[in-house]
Amino acid sequence: MLNDLKKIDSFLQKHHVLTLATIDDSELSACNLFYAYDAQQISFVVASSDETTHIKNITINPKIAGTVVLETKIVGKIEGVQFRGEFLPLEDESLKKLYFKNFPYALAMNPKLWQIKINYFKFTDNTLGFGKKLIWTNFSL
Fold first, then answer.
1. Distance (Å, whole) CA 67 – CA 126
2. Going by C-beta distance under 8 Å and a sequence separation of 6 or more, which residues neighbour residue 87?
3. Which residue in 85, 124, 103, 98 sits closest to 4, CA to CA?
4. Is-contact 141 117, C-beta < 8 A?
5. Which long-range contacts (CB under 8 A, 24 or more apart) does 51-56 make?
6. Looking at the DSSP assignment, which residues form a beta bridge with residue 66?
């Protein structure tokens, strides 16, 4: 399972945009966000304002789902991660530094940063064989 997590980490380090799905009491919403990924904390760091629909939703229900994909039409190169976790205000200074290291221009905007703590990954990697899936879970979070 640790080796699977390393493969997932390697994929996530090559990308920088995730799709996030949230829900309030009844309405679903989806958006795209730039991210930095921290393999040690198994967390994404994202920036977003309190006025957005997804932030309003997570104040009601912090459980989220999302994806990161490689866009390709070549079946043998398809790769993508589905994830679930919890969306929280960011308090960890090392994660803040990671975000601004990846997106230094964001410092000028002084964004509010958030942490997405992951408890489930499903990685589809056709480079390992058609339809190959790697699953990682940590429901103790």
1. 16
2. 20, 22, 54, 58, 62, 63, 64, 114, 115, 116
3. 124
4. yes
5. 53/22, 53/29, 54/20, 54/22, 54/29, 54/87, 55/114, 56/24
6. 20, 83
Q: What domains sit in the chain, N to C, each tagged with a CATH number?
A: 2-137 (2.30.110.10)
Q: How many CA atoms does the CB half-sphere of 43 hold within 13 Å? A: 22
Write the CA distances from 102 to 4, 22, 38, 76, 122, integer angstroms: 24, 25, 11, 29, 24
Structure token pair of residue 36: 């930095």
State how far the Cα of 87 lies from the Cα of 59, in Å rounded to an integer: 9
Reading the chain (141 residues) residue by residue, the pLDDT tens digits are 568 899 999 999 999 999 999 999 888 999 999 999 999 999 999 999 999 999 999 999 999 999 999 988 888 889 999 999 999 999 999 999 999 999 999 999 999 999 999 999 999 988 777 878 999 998 665
Q: Which pair of tokens denotes residue 140?
A: 């103790």
Structure tokens at 116: 């997405």
